[in-house]
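Give me the 3D structure for DHHA1 domain protein.
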Amino acid sequence: MIKSNIPLYEEIYKKIKESNKIILHRHERPDPDAYGSQGSLAELIKINFPEKKVILVGKESPSLSFLFNTEEVVSDDYKDALVITTDTANFPRIDGKLFTKNNFLIKIDHHPPLDNYGDINLVNTEVSSTCELIYDLYLYLRERYNFVINSNIAMLLYIGIVGDTGRFLFSNTTENTLKVASELMKYNFNMTEVIDRMETISEKLMRFRAFIFENYQIYSEGAAYLKITKDDMDKYGVTPGEVSSGINLLRSLKNLQVWCFAIDEGNKVRVRIRSKGPCINDIAGRYNGGGHPLASGATVKNFEEFDFLLDDIANTVNNYIKNNSKY
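Predicted structure for DHHA1 domain protein (327 residues):
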């Protein structure tokens, strides 16, 4: 248990206990950690406080919607409700913001704390995922208040950890991450079946992934990119969210350090950036974004502005290569 978080754990417990209605949000274009942390916390509250009303909010992701359903809400639903966001670093990325300043807001996250928008901000950048942080919160609640979890909560936490660690291959995988995963695997869920279902894709998306391999470009030494236009997405019948799911396909390219997708969404271009070493969240922060040092997102007005972002990436990669002789 992370002892430095205990005062916040206690504050969160008290707010949940005193609230009859709790509404949980996640970030836009949710990934497994967003789904897993939101869903696991909701069910943790439900089974330990069965008298409370718990509502989950957020647009569905095609590859993850089998995990649980969200609800449509209106402004009146937020009257006297406690609001909790999980895995959402900054306020603009919250999916569905019908709550107001009258609602007490709890933020639970593991991204660098650039936007402490909550009344309580439980943020720990040392954990692999928000799901790992939720599990640590559970350990405190189990020790202090006899909380329990079930196999579905364990499954949701596990997929969030698997997602954000790249199946335990990324550098954010720690000894504690593996310990938590091993504890979760003691519960009765079919790990292989769940992961396979998450990663099953349609034929149109499979063909689009061939497009990724055929059309990515090398921008400079160690840096690659792919521009995806609306015509490209229309041709293959894929959505921006489905496009983003292929970002790590380029990871295995020899000598690659940083790569990104620029996805045209009409009135803006969303940029997904990934790295094997150079810090990229500061770059994302300069372009209306943020995230982790090795996994971030940004937003630019158009492809012309995206070229400036590419220049920043190239400079960062060049400095990184110079300072790391093995490259």
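The mean pLDDT is 94. Let me know if you want a second pass.
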